[in-house]
Amino acid sequence: MTGGGDPRQKLLQGAEWQAQRIPVCRALGHPSDGTKAAEQLATRLDDTWKSVASRFACNAAVSISNEGKHPSLTISSLDKLDEPPALIQLNRRVRELIPPVDLTELLLEIDARTGFTREFSHVSESGARAQDLQVSLCATLLAEACNIGHEPLIKHNIPALTRHRLSWVKQNYLRAETLVSANARLVDFQSTLPLAGYWGGGEVASADGMRFVTPVKTVNSGPNRKYFGSGRGITWYNFVSDQYSGFHGIVVPGTLRDSIFVLEGLLEQQTGLNPVEIMTDTAGSSDIIFGLFWLLGYQFSPRLADAGGAIFWRADKMAHYGALNELARGCVELSKIESQWDEMMRMAGSLKLGTIHASELIRSLLRSSRPSGLAQAIMEVGRVNKTLYLLNYIDDEDYRRRILTQLNRGRRTPCSGSSHLLRTTW
User: Fold this and answer.
1) Is residue 132 part of a domain?
2) Cα–Cα distance between 399 and 301 in angstroms, integer?
3) Secondary structure class of 74 (helix, strand, coil)
4) Helix, strand, or coil here: 10?
5) What is the pLDDT of residue 95?
C-alpha cells in the first residue's frame, strides 16, 4: 500500500510478511486459513450459547425483561464479602509488626536490594557517577511521586540534597526511558517474591485512567468540562498487575477514548510480566477492541456498566437457545472474517513485532464513518468475542467478582501535594 499518511504502510509487507506468516499464526494460536478460523469461532460461540442457556434457569442473579423494544438483562449487584474475624485479626497483627519508617529511607533500602537507581543514566555523560547519586535520585523521585517539589527535601548541609544537586539530577537523569527501565527492574524483582506469588501469577492486569487538572500550558493537556471544569487536563492511564505492581503507564491528552491505549500498554510494556487477560471499565470496550485483543492472543474482560442492554450476537440464524434465544438478535457475518483473515493476521503480526503502534492503528480503523473491509472484519471478530465474554459474565458470578477485585487493585489517591494538580509543563 502506498500513499501519504496511511498508517497501514507500516504493516509487514510482501516477502517479509510471507516469511513471518506461519510463525505469527502459530505464536498467536490461530489457524492460517480463514475458513477454518471462522468455523472455529462459530462453533465456540454456538457451544457457549447452549452451555449458558442450559444453566440459566438456575441463575438467580440474572433476569430477562421484555418490556422494551428488545429484551434486556438485569444483573444483580455483587454482595459485599465480609472479612472473616481471623483475617481482621491478621491485618491488625501485621500492621503492628510494620515499623514506622521514613519514605526516603524506604526508597534507599529498596535500591540497596534491587539496584533500580542504576537504571538512571546521565543524558550525555557515561561512566563515572556522582558521589551518593542514589540519594539524590531517591529524593528527586519522591518529590515527583508525591507532587511536592524539591523544597521539602533540600538539605544544604548534605551535598547530595542541595537545591543545585536535585535540580541537576532531575534535568539530566529523569527521562521516560530511564523511568521505564527502573520501573521494570522493580516490577521484575517483586515478581520473584513469594508474597507476590500468593496475590497472582502476573497473567492478569487492569487498566484505568486517573484524571489530573493541569493549570499550566502543555501540549499534552486537553479540555473536558466533566473532569476539568473550564480548564484542561490529562489522563494518566495506569496498568496494574494482579501482583499489585504498576508495570506501565501512558499520558493521554485530555480524555481521549481510553480504549485506544489499552493494547498499546500491553504490547509496549518492558517488564518480564506477560499478562494475557486485561480488565478495564466501560470506556475501553468497543467491538474493534474486543477483536484486536482476541487476534493478539489476549482475553479482554471489562466491567460493563450497560451489560444488560448490550447486543448479543449469534453465528447460526436457525439455532435456538432456549430462554436466551431472543437475546441473540445480531448475526455475525462470517464471510467478512474469512475474506480478511490474512490481513488481520498481518496486522496482528505487525503489532506484535512492533512495526506500528496500536493507538496509531486503532485511530486509523476508527477514523472513517465508512469502515474499511479490514475494520469490518475485526468488528465481526470482536462481536463474537464480546458475546462470549458477555455470556460468561452473566453465567459466572466468580468471574464478575474477579473483574471487580482486579480493578480495585489499581485504584487509590493519586497525589499528596499541590491539591492533586499537575503544575509541570510536559
Assistant:
1) no
2) 9
3) strand
4) helix
5) 94
Asked if 147 and 422 touch (Cβ cutoff 8 Å), the reply is: yes
354 within a domain of the structure (yes/no): yes
Structural domain range at position 364: 23-83+202-420
Separation between Cα atoms, residue 39 and residue 334, nearest integer Å: 8
Strands 62-65 and 232-241: unpaired
Q: Which residue has the cell 467491538?
A: 287
* Residue 284 belongs to a domain: yes
Q: Give the rounded distance of the alpha carbon of 214 from its chain centre.
A: 23
331 — phi, psi (to 5°)?
A: -120, 125
Question: Is residue 425 very low, low, confident or very high in pLDDT (cuts 50, 70, 90)?
Answer: very low
Q: How many CB atoms lie within 10 A of CB 326?
A: 12
CA triplet 209, 387, 252: central angle to 5 degrees? 15
CB 162 within 8 A of CB 146: no
d(CA 348, CA 390): 24
Q: Identify the residue whose cell numbers are 510536559.
A: 426
Tell me whether residue 317 is in a domain: yes
SS3 96: helix
Q: Convert the pLDDT of each residue in 212-267 to its tens digit.
A: 888 777 777 877 777 788 888 888 888 999 999 999 998 877 655 666 788 888 99
User: What are the two backbone dihedrals, phi and then psi, of residue 249, each rounded to the nearest 5 degrees?
Assistant: -155, 145
Q: Annotate 176-194 with DSSP letters as a single string.
A: HHHHHHHHHHHHHHHHTSH
**Cα gap 8→365, rounded to integer Å:** 10
Structural domain count of the chain: 1
What's the residue count for the chain? 426
